Amino acid sequence: MSKRLRFISATAVAVSSTAMPKKSKPDWTFSLVVTYNPFTMASEIRQEVKTQSAFPIGPLGIEAALEAKANPSIQPRLKIFDQFAVTDRVALVSGGNGGLGLETAIALCEADARVVYCFDLPEKPSEVFVASQDYVRRLGNNSRLEYFSADARDQQLLWKKAEEIGDKEQRLDICVAAAGIAKPQIDCLKYPAETFKEVIDVNTNGVFFTAQAAGRQMARFGRGGSIILFASVAGSVSEPGGGMVSYGSSKSAVLQMARSMACELGNQKIRVNSLSPGIIRTPMTREIVNTVSPILDAWLRSSPLGRVGRADEVRGVVTWLASDASSFCTGSNIVVDSGYCAQ
Question: Choosing from 117, 147, 247, 340, which is the catalytic residue?
Answer without folding.
Answer: 247
